[in-house]
Specification:
Blueprint (H helix, E strand, L loop, with lengths): L2 E5 L11 H11 L3 E3 L11 H19 L6 E6 L1 H11 L9 E7 L19 H11 E9 L9 H9 L4 E3 L15 H8 L9
Parallel strand pairs: 1-2, 1-3, 3-4, 4-5, 5-6
Amino acid sequence: MAYVLINHGWTNQRPQDHWQRRLAIALRRQGHQVFYPAYPNTMEPTFEDWSWLLLNELYILLETRGDSTDEVIVIGHSLGNVLWLKTATDGLLPADFKADRLLMVAPPERTGISALPSFNVGSSDAEIAAALANSAKKVTLLGSDNDPWIPSGIQAAIGDPLGLEAIVIPGAAHLSNKDGWGQWQGVIDWVNNPEADITKR
């Protein structure tokens, strides 16, 4: 069993056909402890509101886990990744906490979220990379080659600055439900086995 925290993105109201909601249901049916917070005001979010809920959910997760050695896995999509990065970079995560695995799906370029100034991560790439490394033992970066939120390409815009090798799924756009990403067997398999083919549909 794993303890899984799922962070959704901007405008995402957790629709039934989104892969994150389907992931939460599939994992709960398998017996995992899944935390899938509904972040407030998804159309005009603020970092203050979202980080408050993130930290409260994370503390509950850790209290539920207790002294267990079961994995803690964090999975973010789009703005949910910026939320995690800024929380980590600002030093807000619980002391001595480190997730076992972190999956970052389609994190947007900084310019893509300029309309949300409270989410601006003002730190340097090196500082962000260091905070990211401190927040998780293993980080997996995944995106597509035609994501409108990452026009520079996920490897150039996100992977290279953070020292990560991105997994690229051709033609997957922003990997949202509107892009056809509802059922995603690979991410379910990946939670159960980090060596699984995460790109499997």
